[in-house]
Write a structure and sequence with these properties.
By secondary structure, the protein is mainly alpha-helical. The protein has one domain (3-20, 49-102, 118-221). The chain has eight helices and no strands. The relative contact order is 0.14.
Length: 243
């Protein structure tokens, strides 16, 4: 699998998901001057700033940096996941409610489910990362003369990631396919999420697929099917070049 093919596959999938979501959505309801229900409360996420890690230690950060750089590499189409800040995005997600699985049912039973049922694990995402990174590095040291994952040549990193995806690399304490699926999912999310969450730096993911972002009014472009969208994308917090 070439680097361009991987990026094109991810970009095409993201665009298709956006289109399907828009077409399959229910009819919008509008509210003015009130919340849509007493059980709903507004959330105002704070923009992620800085480069410090709140969850990942140095070994874990080295692994995630190397892994996301192979999953969505930089090439002639633009920056990759590493340059887009996906590691910071993943770190802050693992340090927050997602990492603790706050909104997940985590009481069992723990029987193996079908692949269509998604991840089936008693471990919250943060625990899966901590266990998975340690297990992958232990496996690499045994197979590659004491080297951790981030010290491997790119082609060896690709082969190792492929073996995780297929469930072929035996890991201690975590299922390789589940760990790889979570890592890939979070990398894609970081590449295409709103920049306020720490990833999609300079909106490189949105620029790759021509997504307008949170621009408030797109009526001018609604009927221009197949025409390129020429305006720069806008995040929830606006754009850097806006005063």
């Amino acid at each position: 699998m070439t680097r361009i093919t991987r990026r094109q596959f991810i970009a095409t999938g993201a665009l298709a998901s956006t289109v399907v979501g828009l077409n399959a959505g229910t009819r919008a309801e509008f509210y003015s001057g009130a919340m849509p229900g007493s059980s709903v409360s507004p959330e105002h996420p704070e923009a992620v700033t800085g480069n410090n890690f709140l969850f990942l230690d140095r070994d874990e950060a080295d692994f995630v940096e190397a892994a996301v750089a192979r999953l969505i590499p930089s090439d002639d189409l633009g920056p990759g996941a590493l340059e887009a800040g996906c590691v910071l995005f993943i770190d802050r997600q693992l340090a927050g409610p997602f990492g603790r699985a706050d909104h997940w049912y985590m009481q069992g039973p723990w029987a193996d489910g079908d692949e269509q049922q998604g991840m089936q694990s008693r471990m919250a995402p943060a625990e899966m990362y901590r266990t998975g990174v340690r297990a992958v590095n232990d496996y690499c040291r045994g197979q590659f003369g004491g080297k951790s994952f981030h010290e491997l040549a790119p082609e060896d990193q690709d082969r190792l990631l492929a073996s995780l995806e297929k469930g072929e690399a035996p890991l201690d304490g975590v299922k390789p396919k589940s760990f790889f699926a979570l890592l890939l999912q979070n990398t894609i999310e970081g590449f295409f999420a709103d920049p306020l969450y720490g990833g999609n730096r300079d909106m490189v993911g949105w620029k790759l697929i021509g997504f307008p972002g949170a621009r408030y009014d797109n009526r001018e472009f609604v009927d221009k099917h197949g025409a390129p969208y020429t305006l720069p994308p806008v995040g929830i917090m606006g754009r850097k070049d806006w005063s």
